């Protein structure tokens, strides 16, 4: 830029010298003098333009000088932002890797849970099958228990008929009772099952029937059957058989009678088999005779 400016100034000087020479030489013709003057004026005008351009150029250089620090600062800021973005991208990549790891871990745990669920389902099915099998066995035993007691009661009724311990009226009543029990069993097992509650109902009915059979065979109607467990000459009192045939007999009353009867059997066994002191024997003998006389008679 400096070399170009120097060349321009040389050209201006040459033209200016030529103009001065033309003005100082009187022998030149007027038209040529005017032409040189115009050229000088043009040179001056061009000089002004060049000076103005140089001023603008210098101003541009000064402006560029001021802009260079701002551009550098902007560049540094851009690089800083770029570094921050790259750091954020690295952080996001790290988070993505962590998320992928967590996802894989969750999928693994989900698979484990599914496997555990399948195992629990299998165990539940096996347990249900086992319980069902156990229930069927228990119901089978319960049904067999009911059938066995019904058969035994039928044998006792036939024995009472054969020995004359049961009158026709008593036999008819006991047969009707057995039929009611059979009907109850058919009703309860109509669904192919026999629950504990249903078994309890049948057991209560069978216990009542058993008590009735015993009372009817040992009462004074017809031939009186001895209480063989106590002796061939021991017979039940009518008050006892009346209690046993009473349909309003409560469970507590029945248990009390049964407890007294077991106590009589126990006392008789101890008196017959244990080597007791005289005082102890006398006490047990008195208790035995009191209980026996409350329900039974001799001869």
Task: Name the descriptors.
mainly alpha, two-stranded antiparallel sheet, 7 helices
Written account of the structure:
With 299 residues, the protein is mainly α. Among the domains are: 58 residues; 74 residues, no CATH class. The protein is 84% helix and 2% strand. The protein is built from seven helices and two strands. Strands 1-2 form a two-stranded antiparallel sheet. Helix 2 packs parallel to helix 4, helix 4 packs antiparallel against helix 5 and helix 6 runs antiparallel to helix 7. It is rod-shaped and about 190 Å long. It starts with a helix and ends with a strand. The model has no long low-confidence stretch (mean pLDDT 85).
Task: Summarize the amount of helix as a percent range.
Answer: over 70%
What's the β-strand tally? 2
- How far do the termini sit from each other? 162 Å
What's the overall geometry? rod-shaped
What portion of residues belong to β-strands?
Answer: under 5%
